[in-house]
Amino acid sequence: MGARAVRVLFDVTHPALVHLFETPARTLADRGHDVAVAAREKDVTTDLLDAAGIPYAVASRAGTGPLSRVVELAVRELGLLRIARRFRPDVVVSQVDPAAVHVARLVGASSVVFDDSEHERFAASVTHPFADVVCTPAKFRRDVPNQRRYDGFHELAYLHPERFTPDPDVLREHGVEPDEPFAVVRFVSWEAHHDVGQDGFSPAGKHRLLAELSEHAAVYVSSERDVPADVDADPLPVPSECVHDLLSFADCYVGDSQTMATEAAVLGTPAVRSNSFAGDDDMSNFRELENEYGLLESFEDEDAAIERAVEFVREPPDETLSRRRERLLTDKIDVASFVVDVVEGVA
């Protein structure tokens, strides 16, 4: 630790950020720093915080539709400002949240921003200029002010072997035999501000995907929208805090989610991703996972994605993915330790 204890406020606006920031927050607290969490009620974000036993204050709640997002941004700035004035942080840590960097300026705190999405243009344009440090993966395709590149992915802050060991007993406790074939499917709502004009699986594609997968394996679905009712598929059988154990033992992950596709890839689970982001202008992390490590396959064409996913569950790959994952882990850093170093360095 540095010469003095600092006060660190983590801004958690998405379920993935609970995972990204949990270990750094605990490590900083163990080193004698004061840590607080401001949460946004979105999907299972607060459920994950509760399951992890992390105290938090709610700054805002996610709405739906473009107008609600504009209103929420104003509400969030006020809610986060109230939390910050009570806590008096020295550092505010976030992922591309304009409210977080603006509030940091207002209370005289430094701001650290994590950004791994080149497509996050508008929010980034009103966030990066106010940040003291913007941390991006090494192959991020844009240069930004006060940038600090690191050789890793957000998901390695919590799925690196130093941080996570999959537990087959967790699955058995919830009625899933880890050695039996099963697939994990994720569909997102496409209502986030950075998803405007983008889409994933069509209703017909969802039906075909689930129907064909279920002919060869059990199928567990996480979806932000309704799924077809006449196919043999079930909701995720484990609580949200155990989804990575499920993902680790799956014969295949397939979906239109960005985060879960990366999680499956770094775990060495056969991963198929299909949405309109895929293609020549895809984000650098997906291109790297696919082109350099062969741990992910992305498709603009949902029919091609369905065929590839079915191939995975019909004929699971051999040890090739394990070897590819080992090479990835050799090349990449423990991102949780990097977060801690950056926060202590900027304080």
Supply the key terms.
18% strand, Rossmann fold, 347 residues, globular, 2 domains, alpha/beta, 6-stranded parallel sheet
The whole-angstrom Rg is 20 Å
Main sheet strand line-up: 3-2-1-4-5-6-7
- What is the 3D shape? globular
Counted beta strands: 13
The stretches of 5 or more residues where confidence is low (pLDDT under 50) are: none
* Beta-strand fraction estimate: 15-25%
Give the overall average pLDDT: 92
Helix proportion: 40-55%
Which homologous superfamily in CATH is the superfamily of the largest domain?
Answer: Glycogen Phosphorylase B
Written description of the protein model:
With 347 residues, this protein is an alpha/beta fold. The chain folds into two domains: 167 residues, Rossmann fold (3-Layer(aba) Sandwich); 164 residues, CDP-glycerol glycerophosphotransferase, C-terminal domain (Rossmann fold). The chain is built from 13 helices and 13 strands. The chain has a seven-stranded parallel beta sheet with strand order 3-2-1-4-5-6-7, with helices on both faces. The longest helix has 22 residues. It is globular, with a radius of gyration of 20 Å. The model has no long low-confidence stretch (mean pLDDT 92).
Concise synopsis of the structure shown:
With 347 residues, this protein is of the alpha/beta class.
